[in-house]
Amino acid sequence: MEVIHFYHINDLHSHFETWPKISRFLHEKRREHENRSQQVFIFDIGDHMDRVHPFTEATLGKCNVELLNEANVDFVTIGNNEGITLPFEALDDLYANADFQVLIGNLFYNDNTRPTWVKPYHIQETKEGTKIGFVGLTVYFSKFYQELGWRISEPLEELAKIVAQIKGKADVLVLLSHLGIHEDEEIARRFPEIDVIMGGHTHHIFEHGKIENQSLLACAGKHGNYIGHIQLVLEGHSIQSKTAKLIDINDIPQKNQDDKAIQYWQNKGEELLQQVVVTLPRTLPSNWQKETELSRLLAEGLKEWCKADAAILNCGLFLKDLHKGPVTKLDIHQLLPHPINPCTVWINGQELIEVIKQATEEKWMNWVLKGLGFRGKVMGSFLYAGIHIVDEDSYHKKFWMNGRPIDPDKEYKIATIDMFTFGPFFPEVFRAEKKEYDVAHMLRDIMEWQLYRTFS
């Protein structure tokens, strides 16, 4: 009888406050199983990094790779935070010093060759001679990868090709999937030969795994709150049983050195972001309830950056004041930590008026928002550049753009942020046929550019 252990994490999002416990636990479990002559493999299923943390921001994810190395991780796949929040060159170099294997079956250069640091799958033979095929796939954000200079293929189509290649070469087939729960379930239905699917992306939790068709699905939530453990029992290289469970991070004892490590990563990131961008002659306050000089600066800068007719932003994006005196990259990162990109949308005047009407609704002021790249707390009020609202009376408003009434039939180019094209905010923006994303720049890059132009 052969016993094989898998330990997996997913969607840490640079929540390093849980990492000391995770790393120590993984080292202890590896020693424990190997002392019993049991095989153990450790996995990260993507979105380990998130540029909301200053250390990740300052190193463009290199610090995350170092932490994975130190934890003695064996295999990883990437999530959208690795894939589409880094410039092309940064992702292409991210794993240069990795001690683990990166598995992504559906990522290519534009010439259809695979990056040298990627394998679509890897077949690992255990000490008992069992051959395990490990496959990795990441979420299909085709347009964003294309804008960055990558090509990403449809995951299930690519998986079919890989499974055909592995057929007959592996006794056990395991998928590292940063695709989300619905795709994982679909894969289990369509590919019964896959024995285990370790998931991520949708931050779901399977406390004891889930059997779908013949596959065992597993996922460990987010932010390092859980570590997943899968145990396979084999006889004659054939699986006899497969079980999954989650280890709650709160059940792992805290040690004195944990807080020191967490603080070191925070301090190191802040130290690396101390470059002064501009010196302000006055303090620029933020306010999620109303427009300020600071928020207006970004709205006007976004409009000009995108060469748009107007810009629309929400005040909840701004998380701190910028104080009089030197302003550093760290200050701007703390102001706008969101992995959110500028976006340009083409809509007609009537649609634009509807968007403005919706944006003036009181519900947004305290609307709690999580996900879609937003790292603040509430949406807050909306502000505009190039758009002026005139109250004729308590019931009627007129909408002007750049000194003229908005023409209902005219097409307008509107600069905004990418999350408004994804979520349930403005139907007119969501369904707009023409959208362009500036995935090479974060919103804070535009803020830095605008501050420098204004105050240098």
UniProtKB/TrEMBL annotation:
<keyword id="KW-0378">Hydrolase</keyword>
<dbReference type="Pfam" id="PF00149">
    <property type="entry name" value="Metallophos"/>
</dbReference>
<dbReference type="GO" id="GO:0008768">
    <property type="term" value="F:UDP-sugar diphosphatase activity"/>
</dbReference>
<dbReference type="InterPro" id="IPR011240">
    <property type="entry name" value="Pesterase_YunD"/>
</dbReference>
<dbReference type="InterPro" id="IPR008334">
    <property type="entry name" value="5'-Nucleotdase_C"/>
</dbReference>
<keyword id="KW-0547">Nucleotide-binding</keyword>
<dbReference type="Pfam" id="PF02872">
    <property type="entry name" value="5_nucleotid_C"/>
</dbReference>
<feature type="domain" description="5'-Nucleotidase C-terminal">
    <location>
        <begin position="283"/>
        <end position="418"/>
    </location>
</feature>
<dbReference type="GO" id="GO:0000166">
    <property type="term" value="F:nucleotide binding"/>
</dbReference>
<dbReference type="InterPro" id="IPR004843">
    <property type="entry name" value="Calcineurin-like_PHP"/>
</dbReference>
<feature type="domain" description="Calcineurin-like phosphoesterase">
    <location>
        <begin position="5"/>
        <end position="204"/>
    </location>
</feature>
<comment type="similarity">
    <text>Belongs to the 5'-nucleotidase family.</text>
</comment>
<protein>
    <submittedName>
        <fullName>2',3'-cyclic-nucleotide 2'-phosphodiesterase (5'-nucleotidase family)</fullName>
    </submittedName>
</protein>
<dbReference type="InterPro" id="IPR029052">
    <property type="entry name" value="Metallo-depent_PP-like"/>
</dbReference>
<keyword id="KW-0732">Signal</keyword>
<dbReference type="GO" id="GO:0030288">
    <property type="term" value="C:outer membrane-bounded periplasmic space"/>
</dbReference>
<dbReference type="GO" id="GO:0009166">
    <property type="term" value="P:nucleotide catabolic process"/>
</dbReference>
<dbReference type="GO" id="GO:0008253">
    <property type="term" value="F:5'-nucleotidase activity"/>
</dbReference>
<dbReference type="InterPro" id="IPR006179">
    <property type="entry name" value="5_nucleotidase/apyrase"/>
</dbReference>
<dbReference type="InterPro" id="IPR036907">
    <property type="entry name" value="5'-Nucleotdase_C_sf"/>
</dbReference>
